[in-house]
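new request in #modeling-help
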Amino acid sequence: MPELPEVQTVVTTLIPTVVGRRVTRVQLRRRDILTPPHLDFAATLRNRKVSDITRRGKRIIFLLESAERFFIHLGMTGRLTVERTDAPIQPHTHLLIDLSPAREKLQLRFRDQRRFGGIFWIGRGRADENIGPEPLLIRPSQLSRRLLKTTRAIKTALLDQTVIAGLGNIYVDEALFAARIHPLTRACDITPSQLSRLCRAIKLTLRRALRHRGSTLRDYVDANGSTGRFQNLHRVYDRAAHPCHTCKTPIARLVLGGRSTHFCPRCQPRRQSRRIL
DNA sequence: GTCCATGTTCTTTA
DNA sequence: CTAAAGAACATGGA
């Protein structure tokens, strides 16, 4: 469920309720969601104060007062919410963290049905930076350099978190539509004008999605349990056979790298339409 | 029973 | 050797 807009919305909603509080109790109900698996996560976290929560790509990074860090990745179905300790515990809740002060009875909960997500302890060392630049900050020259290195389809390249961090299946399809680029275009064949449109389209699409608090297709909620609204504004994602908002041509769907890919065959032609002289 | 799903990583192939 | 394609992971809904 979570791409950059959803992950950022979770962070934004977590901050006011979690930052500044101390961990009073930790229940890790499944060990297989933790990396490294043998760490005593509960003991390590206990009595630590959360001094900040940030995002890098799709990772939610918790900074502790001890200068140690860990991050949570939501995978496909992960949810990170703050609830009352006496609220019923939903199925597939793998981690519960009680927060000070005790009288407020607040608990941070991580729930993940498919368990593609997880908790990753970083400690004081540096996190592996095998992760690409932030899409909201990336410059066209930077994106260009990374795309020129591969012959893969542009859609596949943009999904690769080492190329650019934070985009997933929804926002790649939406950004390629906004940039009028066919998803099968080889990344290294992107022209300068396409590149400039793409860089803008990525930022524009993400900012609009952020303004609407992300897309809820099925599971996604922010830390307060609220759903997103951007799914109603998707132009191509999950709209196969529906008319394009721009030209009314039915949206096409193909499978690329095992992921469904949606685009408008008319607005996103394979080759750039040349100017008629 | 089948296919599909917002993600990542390991394995196989070219 | 490297890059790219494909399978695998776990669960549930249509």
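bot summary: The radius of gyration of chain A is 20 Å.
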